[in-house]
Specification:
Cofactor: Zn(2+)
Pfam families: Peptidase_M20
Structural class: alpha/beta
Radius of gyration: 22 Å
Strand content: 15-25%
Bound molecules: (2S)-amino(hydroxy)ethanoic acid, manganese (II) ion
Number of strands: 15
Order of helices and strands: HHEEEHEHHHEHEEEHEEEHEEHEHEH
Protein name: N-carbamoyl-L-amino-acid hydrolase
Helix content: 25-40%
Number of helices: 12
InterPro entries: Amidase_Cbmase, Bact_exopeptidase_dim_dom, Peptidase_M20
GO molecular function, one term: metal ion binding
């Protein structure tokens, strides 16, 4: 019976990003397809009935699809240059939990379902939790299928190339309606468990969070032949907005605002940019704070653009309000596992499902506290404790 760490070792070479470090595993790209095949092979080997949905999510049932089911799972895609555990730890822990239950001769009275959600990070098509959002109806298929990646490929085209018929994208009427409870195990993205000196935790809440795109437009020109007073350089307001985001967030209670992605066009060393796109990731403990922060930044962006003779357009690309996980279910998990509760600033598919299904999340200690970077880590012993805890929850909920 392989441990979670041994299962992770199976896929350790898949999707390594030599340039950035870490992993770049984007939905329906070659390496992510390889991970999908690996998961299907692992599930089939365990006698699970594999049932992909129309949104690129993969369900695997034990013994077979049925109502009142208990589900667990996570995602296999990553951010660019991401860590090894964010997503895959939840998937391998689900497989390991099934192994543990089968090894003790357990047979679920309620069907059990493992699930891999597509495009949780939004690393290719820009919308996080795309697979779970389509399945729950929170993301409209007509919007999703038209999303394009950096190369201009649409989600519909990428689905077709991966053998997923985009005609079937949309609310899941097959698997999701059968789920009575969902639990996601995830590496902690922070040091809450390190500070508490505990291997496991139970999620209490997720920050409100969203993504906004700002497009600054000026006049492309020659970097040498254009005097400073004859420029309309969109890089100026864009770069000033990056530091404004940090300053604005600092005025709100424990809010976070990040610009991790900025794209000048045409992006030449000796060229004044014609336009600059930047993406703001803003998060706070309330809907009002998040919205308030973004409104301030939209206003500042306008003023900064005007100062430089530029224009700016901004648009909301995704948003999810704070999630407070189901209270009684949280209490049951903390009691069952003798684990502390802790909040998270990271979004998850469990956050999407929580609006529809009694949902919980388990966290496994991350000694570095770092995530979305190669330094993300979880000790093998803590990963074992996580899979054992997940087996405990699945056993209790499905017997
Ligand atoms: O961005 C997030 O919080 C998650 O990792 N998708
Ligand atoms: Mn992530
Ligand atoms: Mn994740």
């Amino acid at each position: 019976m392989p441990s979670p760490s041994e299962l992770l070792a199976d896929i350790r070479r898949v999707g390594r990003d030599r340039e950035r470090g870490g992993y770049s595993r984007h939905v329906f790209e070659h390496c992510e397809l390889e991970l999908r095949e690996w998961f299907v092979e692992q599930a089939t080997r365990r006698g699970l009935e594999v049932l992909p949905d129309g949104n690129g999510n993969i369900w695997a049932w034990w013994p077979a699809p049925g109502d009142g089911a208990v589900a667990t799972g996570s995602h296999l895609d990553s951010v660019p240059g991401g860590g090894e555990f964010d997503g895959p730890l939840g998937v391998v822990s689900a497989l390991s939990a099934v192994d543990r239950l089968r090894a003790e001769g357990f047979r679920p009275r309620r069907p059990l379902a493992l699930v891999v959600f597509a495009e949780e990070e939004g690393g290719r098509f820009g919308i996080p939790c795309l697979g779970s959002g389509l399945a729950t109806g929170t993301v409209a298929p007509e919007r999703a299928l038209g999303l394009r990646d950096e190369s201009g490929t649409s989600l519909a085209e990428a689905m077709r190339a991966a053998g997923v018929d985009p005609e079937h994208a949309g609310p899941d009427r097959t698997s999701l309606p059968r789920i009575a409870r969902f639990v996601e195990l995830h590496v902690e993205q922070g040091r809450g468990l390190v500070h508490r000196q505990r291997p496991l935790g139970v999620a209490s809440s997720i920050l409100a969070h969203g993504r906004w795109r700002f497009r600054f437009t000026g006049q492309g020109n020659h970097a040498g032949a254009t005097p400073l007073d004859d420029r309309r350089d969109p890089m100026l307001p864009a770069s000033l907005l990056v530091s404004e985001a940090r300053r604005t967030a600092a005025r709100y209670d424990d809010a976070r605002a990040t610009v991790g992605r900025i794209r000048p066009v045409p992006s030449g060393t000796n060229v004044i940019a014609a336009s600059v796109d930047l993406w703001l990731d803003a998060r706070a403990h309330s809907d009002a704070d998040t919205r308030g922060m973004v409104e301030e930044l939209r206003y500042r962006a306008e003023a900064l653009a005007v100062e430089e003779g530029c224009e700016v357009l901004s648009s909301e690309e995704s948003y999810s309000d704070t999630v407070s996980f189901d209270g009684p279910l949280r209490d049951e998990l903390t009691g069952m596992l003798a684990a502390p509760e802790l909040p998270t600033g990271a979004g998850h598919d469990a956050g999407v499902l929580a609006a529809r299904i009694p949902t919980g999340m388990l966290f496994v200690r991350n000694p570095t506290g770092v995530s979305h970077a190669p330094e993300e880590y979880a000790e093998p012993a803590d990963c074992d404790a996580g899979a054992e805890a997940l087996a405990t929850v699945l056993r209790r909920w499905s017997r």
